[in-house]
Specification:
The protein is an all-alpha fold. Helices cover 48% and strands 0% of the residues. InterPro entries: Ankyrin_rpt, Ankyrin_rpt-contain_sf.
Length: 518
């Protein structure tokens, strides 16, 4: 007596099963796959993830069951039978809640036999994308299923253009990002006409970017074997692979890129930062030495704020970065940013004693360099209550202790009227060097408290001759500057009178706090 229930009884039982139970039933009784019907057994009814029986069979590589359910002879029969046609759609194009079709699921699982079975079926769309924008070849590449990737890329029905458009996903990028060397090699060797070494995925990232990001040295070497590799391509926010290598501290990638014959180490991103600007931020000595040894590196290039790598190094307080940059033969240490501040100005502002000392020891550094407000490093130092730095600067005989800025203020005036309050030690120091100052009415209005008050202008006006503020300002700042300020209203008048300038705002913004010693 047979231990297996009659087929008809099994089919009756199958009528009440959901997708998952029906899949388990077919696993136990595989011969039933060819007996299940579209309407009677609810083949299209999905589970909570949108997977019907065909999805589950494809995902688990049940090629034999798929062959029984969808024999090739049924293709001809379905042309005149609506029910059969609906059944055929299950294999060709039904999608679950993630928009994955049986082909995508089989390809992702690496089930070659199931993939081949589905590809023989009419109506299969090789260009179909799931909810992440991935096609079947994308998911196969991500999982490193080399043979399936190659099979799909050979199909003429696959018409996705990975070379001409920045797609969300890219088989080569996915293979590289996930460390699949052989899959990437197969694509480059056999299918480079479909997916080139410079093709891009989301955010414009190339395979090289993904190799750098994931740190796969073998894949990095593979990509550099390709003669068409472009190491200068702009990716997300106009950065290059070199920028990314710096951010990832990937020294191997940096060496390879900088050794490339066509590399441009001075490419700038969306804020005009070069990779050297970013390397400075990390204070990574081996990385900086790589850049500074390259013959085409421009050490004086400026970003969108006008800052050179040296200025950035000073502002970050990274002594090793400053030291290495100053050793470069092409360095111009007095290059100004867009508010006129030099490396020495910033070092004085931030109280970076050793950096100031190092800069003052150079003959090509101007001790009296003036920013856009006419302030010298000495005035900037005492304004920030940097007594030790001011003392160091004053040791230089070329420093003019009474140099006046564009507001007629000397260093002594700045020491008296620092935003942080008057600095007794700096005042005493300056007086010992013969410092002088002129007192102006607006100085009595505290810069940080009263200058923004409604009565600020009235207070100044009350202290000037004839109580005529405009006439006073013409004498102080000249006719052109005064008329321009009054033509733009009260805010502009306040800005001129109380030194509310872009340079002052930049200094207030870029504060590191306490003095920096390294």
């Amino acid at each position: 007596m047979s231990s297996v229930l009659p087929v008809e009884l099994l089919l009756i039982i199958a009528q009440s099963l959901n997708a998952r139970d029906l899949y388990a039933f077919v696993r136990v009784f595989p011969f039933l796959a060819g007996e299940l019907t579209y309407t009677r057994h609810l083949l299209a009814v999905p589970d909570e993830y949108g997977n019907n029986l065909v999805h589950l069979l494809a995902r688990n590589g049940e090629a034999a069951s798929l062959e029984l359910m969808f024999p090739e002879r049924s293709i001809e029969e379905s042309r005149s039978n609506d029910i059969l046609r609906q059944r055929q759609v299950l294999l060709a194009s039904s999608a679950n809640h993630k928009d994955a079709t049986p082909l995508l699921l089989a390809a992702e699982g690496g089930h070659m036999a199931a993939v081949e079975k589905i590809l023989r079926w009419p109506g299969v769309d090789l260009n179909h994308e799931d909810h992440e924008g991935r096609t079947a070849v994308d998911v196969a590449a991500k999982e490193g299923h080399t043979e399936i990737v190659s099979l799909l890329l050979e199909r003429p029905e696959l018409t996705v253009d990975w070379n001409g458009v920045n797609r969300r996903t890219n088989p080569l990028c996915l293979a590289v990002a996930n460390g699949h060397v052989e899959t990437a090699r197969r694509i480059l060797e056999r299918h480079d006409n479909r997916i080139g070494v410079n093709s891009k995925s989301a955010h414009g990232r190339t395979p090289l970017c993904h190799a750098i990001d994931s740190g796969h040295d073998a894949l990095l070497a593979l990509l550099f074997e390709q003669p068409e590799l472009d190491v200068n391509l702009a990716v997300d926010f106009a950065a290059t692979a070199l920028h990314l290598a710096v951010r990832k501290r990937n020294h191997a990638a940096m060496k390879a890129i900088l050794a490339h014959p066509h590399v441009d180490p001075n490419r700038q991103d969306v804020v005009q930062q070069t990779a050297l600007h970013e390397a400075v931020y990390l204070a990574d000595e081996p990385m900086l030495r790589l850049f500074l040894r390259h013959p085409r590196t421009d050490v004086n290039i400026r970003n969108c704020y006008g800052a050179t790598p040296l200025v950035n190094a000073v502002k970050k307080g990274y002594g090793i970065s400053v030291l290495l940059l100053l050793q470069h033969p092409d360095i111009v240490p007095d290059k100004k940013d867009d508010v006129g501040m030099t490396a020495l100005s910033w070092a004085a502002h931030l109280g970076s004693y050793n950096t100031v000392k190092m800069l003052l020891n150079r003959q090509d550094v101007d001790r009296n360099a003036r920013d856009d407000d006419g302030m010298t490093p000495l005035s900037i130092a005492v304004q920030g209550r940097r007594y030790q730095v001011a003392d160091l600067i004053l040791e230089n005989p070329s420093v003019n202790v009474n140099d006046i800025d564009d507001w007629g203020w000397t260093a002594l005036a700045h020491a008296f009227h620092s935003p942080a309050g008057w600095d007794g030690p700096s005042v005493s120091l300056l007086l010992s060097y013969g410092a002088t100052m002129t007192v102006y009415p607006e100085m009595t209005v505290h810069l940080e408290t009263l200058s923004d008050a409604e009565i600020a202008l009235d207070l100044v006006e009350a202290m000037v001759k004839d109580r005529d503020l405009e006439r006073y300002m013409i004498r102080r700042f000249g006719l052109e500057r005064t008329e321009l300020a009054f033509s733009h209203g009260e805010r502009a008048v306040r800005a001129l009178l109380f030194r509310q300038t872009p340079a002052a705002a930049r200094r207030n913004h870029d504060q590191l706090g306490s003095s920096l010693f390294w």
